[in-house]
């Protein structure tokens, strides 16, 4: 399969147009003057917030290193980190990126080779990372970022409500089953399902792309002809939009991962299809009213079997960092086996960053705490198919994204059209007609290079 290569300027153009204001927060305690300050750009998800809470332990062990965290929402983080790293700005020593950015940025020379650091760090055990995840964060056999947590996607549902309603899901539920359950459980007091509708290539398009894939759709055919107005894509998108508009959460067009997590944790929705990492919120007694009430099932399917995505929030070091050795010390602390145990022992085993290391799933306390979702999470990550994401052949890789540099801009533009359809501002055919035009421009550049 031919993989397209683009110059680094493609990424700079998409991200550099955004100017964002950052709010930094110091590390969890200043222990006097330090020799080095490392600045860490992170996404403000719950697992990352836990890392900040525990960061004082790192500072105590490394008094010559002071930590400065810059936390951003997911969309802001993607744009700012991309712009800074691509232009060699040097403002960040550690960046939180994913398996979308890592191989591309490594190819462009923007990231440090972390396999070299890992192999020189006693006990770090790079081989312990889940193989599919390790491969997705590698370029030419070396890792250029290391996973803080890994995820696939699955269906989360209220076991008690399903039992009361007499609803039984298949071992591998279909979207047809899910829609029927959402309709049955939807009421004035309870939404049948929560699905992301918020614009962003990493927001609404993450779950929607898996629906498109399993319905038999694809973004491009093998010759890079755009396919967003094909019957398969239109059927998938119309299904998704109808489902969330009819039985979904209020304000669906502005709901993302965080909003859906809150609504299910507070008992306001009966189902949610999203990231396997959501268990850290749903099973946390300090923040969830539905602990022990959630059932977990594989990502719903339709035509294509095995629809779950593959994703990782990982940590990398930009080539422009002036403190790479200190940055690695922090990264290795935050992604080491011992950190996982520290989270479990200090904060609770349900808050352990999931899906990064195989050894996590052998810890007795974690095995007990994650019995309902741990094995399913590991299975979903190991069985994800980023190299063959669709029913029909495609010239790209990636399940919930396309691993091409243009996708940050293309995906965002398409997502805006889908969100407008969810908001009722236009029809699905109208949204896809515009999306098709965006995709045709990208496809044409790839055909020209053949």
TrEMBL record:
One Pfam family of this chain: SBP_bac_1
RNA-binding among keywords: no
UniProt organism field: Rhodococcus wratislaviensis NBRC 100605
Highest taxon of source: Bacteria
CDD domains named among the record's database cross-references: PBP2_TMBP_like
Keyword terms: Signal
Descriptive protein name: Putative ABC transporter substrate-binding protein
Keyword Plastid among UniProt keywords: no
Signal peptide residues on this chain, from the entry's feature table: 1-28
């Amino acid at each position: 399969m031919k993989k397209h290569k683009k110059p680094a300027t493609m990424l700079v153009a998409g991200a550099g147009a955004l100017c964002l204001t950052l709010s930094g927060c110091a590390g969890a305690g200043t222990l006097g003057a330090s020799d080095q300050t490392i600045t860490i750009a992170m996404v403000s998800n719950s697992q990352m917030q836990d890392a900040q809470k525990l960061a004082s332990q790192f500072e105590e062990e490394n008094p010559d290193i002071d930590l400065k965290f810059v936390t951003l929402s997911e969309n802001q983080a993607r744009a700012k980190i991309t712009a800074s790293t691509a232009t060699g700005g040097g403002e960040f020593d550690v960046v939180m990126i994913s398996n979308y950015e890592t191989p591309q940025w490594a190819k462009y020379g923007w990231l440090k080779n972390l396999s070299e650091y890992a192999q020189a760090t006693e006990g770090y055990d790079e081989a312990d990372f889940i193989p599919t995840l390790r491969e997705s964060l590698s370029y030419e056999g070396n890792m250029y970022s290391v996973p803080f947590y890994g995820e696939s996607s699955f269906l989360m549902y209220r076991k008690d409500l399903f039992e009361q309603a007499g609803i039984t899901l298949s071992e591998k539920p279909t979207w047809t089953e899910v829609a029927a359950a959402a309709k049955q459980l939807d009421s004035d007091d309870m939404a049948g399902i929560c699905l992301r509708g918020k614009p962003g290539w990493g927001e609404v398009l993450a779950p929607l792309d898996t629906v498109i894939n399993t319905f038999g759709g694809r973004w491009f055919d093998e010759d890079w002809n755009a396919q967003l107005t094909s019957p398969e894509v239109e059927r998938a998108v119309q299904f998704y939009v109808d489902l969330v508009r009819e039985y979904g959460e209020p304000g669906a067009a502005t709901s993302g991962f965080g909003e859906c997590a809150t609504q299910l944790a507070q008992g306001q929705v009966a189902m949610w299809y999203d990231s396997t990492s959501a268990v850290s919120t749903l099973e946390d007694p300090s923040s969830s009213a539905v602990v022990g009430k959630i059932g977990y099932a594989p990502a719903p399917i339709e035509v294509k079997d095995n629809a779950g995505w593959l994703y990782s929030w990982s940590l990398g070091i930009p080539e422009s960092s002036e403190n790479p050795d200190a940055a690695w010390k922090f990264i290795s602390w935050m992604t080491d086996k011992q950190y996982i145990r520290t989270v479990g022992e200090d904060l609770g085993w349900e808050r352990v960053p999931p899906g990064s290391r195989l050894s996590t799933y052998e810890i007795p306390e974690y095995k007990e705490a994650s019995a309902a979702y741990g094995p399913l999470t590991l299975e979903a990550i190991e069985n994800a198919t980023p190299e063959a994401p669709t029913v029909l052949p495609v010239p790209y890789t990636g399940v919930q994204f396309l691993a091409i540099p243009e996708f940050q801009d293309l995906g965002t533009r398409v997502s805006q059209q889908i969100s407008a359809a969810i908001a009722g501002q236009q029809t699905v055919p109208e949204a896809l007609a515009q999306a098709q035009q965006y995709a045709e421009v990208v496809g044409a550049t790839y055909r020209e290079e053949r």
